Amino acid sequence: MVKQNFDIKDTDPLLLFGVNDQNLQTLSHTFDIQINARGNRITLEGEEEAVRQVERVLQDMIITINRKGSLSRDDIETLARLSPDGNGDQVHEKKDVILYTPRGMVTPQSEGQRKYYEATRENDIVFAVGPAGTGKTYQAVAVAIAAFKARQVERIILTRPAVEAGEHLGFLPGDLKEKIDPYLTPLYDALHEMLPHDKLRTYIDQRVIEIAPLAYMRGRTLNSAYVILDEAQNATAMQMKMFLTRLGANSQAIITGDITQIDLPHSTASGLVNAINILNKIDGIAICLLTGDDIVRHHLVKEILKAYDNDGNDISKQQD
């Protein structure tokens, strides 16, 4: 057992401690040590390695506060997870923090997601293929926003095929934007998670962030942009070729999709499947295959997908 003092400098102790010292209590329970705070000094008491870990996490908490002006419980739990354990092992490194957002940090949550993130840093075109809940779209949006904030690109373009998921919605009322917005809702959801509402509204109004159906990409050249094609399993081979050849100078693209949920007519081949088969040996293009182990939604999602995979009846083949 050791006892160590940690002095707080260059940050507000109240932000670090949290309301009623909740942040310190979270660290105390996570690392099983005693933590007492008085003024600008924190006293740590426990096993030597655990005390060292908490010191590292406290330093990272201060950095987070100074960068984003706040600290959430999710931030603390993420920083604790990123901290090396007593054996010196580290599943994730600090460089795996993709983006700081008002709701906390966005980081890879599994080994598959970490490889996916590394691929986006090393390649101009990345295909992320996997089942629902593996963070394909969410992580792609975070990577694009991080690139924009770092001034690596000048704009972000998000697109999806306007294909109904097994339902026939019929005539949709309203103007063109109102007709296509339902297809693009998941992209708006991810953006709202990562950007303040007023800033997102400004970016969309100024077309710094553009969200549009895939058909609107035809004939364009996309320079200095981060382009995301979501639900790419529902793009035809011709649409996929059209999309991939839109990339201009200083642009990158992420294509996400789930080849087990293709909503195209049975006679129409998926452009995502086609692209994976013919582009997998080109330098600068990476194909990341995520699995059920990478699912980060509700814990039951993983069990639901397992049950469907183990069922002999493939309902996707029964759909017209």
How does this model look, in words?
The protein is built from 11 helices and 11 strands. With 320 residues, it is α/β, with parallel strands linked by helices. It folds into 2 domains: 2-90, 2-Layer Sandwich (Ribosomal Protein S8, Chain: A, domain 1); 106-317, Rossmann fold (3-Layer(aba) Sandwich), CATH 3.40.50.300. The strands form 3 sheets. The chain has a 6-stranded parallel beta sheet with strand order 8-7-9-10-6-11, with helices on both faces. The protein has a 3-stranded antiparallel beta sheet with strand order 1-3-2, with helices on one face. A two-stranded antiparallel ribbon has the order 4-5.
Question: How does CATH name the architecture of the largest domain?
Answer: 3-Layer(aba) Sandwich
As for the CATH topology of the largest domain, it is Rossmann fold
Kindly state the mean pLDDT as a whole number?
Answer: 84
Number of strand segments: 11
Reported for the largest beta sheet, the result is: 6 strands, parallel
CA gyration radius, whole angstroms: 23 Å
Major sheet strand order: 8-7-9-10-6-11
**SSE order:** EHHEEHHEEHEHEHHEEHEHEH
Strand proportion, as a percent range, falls in 15-25%
How many domain modules?
2
CATH superfamily of the largest domain: P-loop containing nucleotide triphosphate hydrolases
Structural class determined from secondary elements? alpha/beta
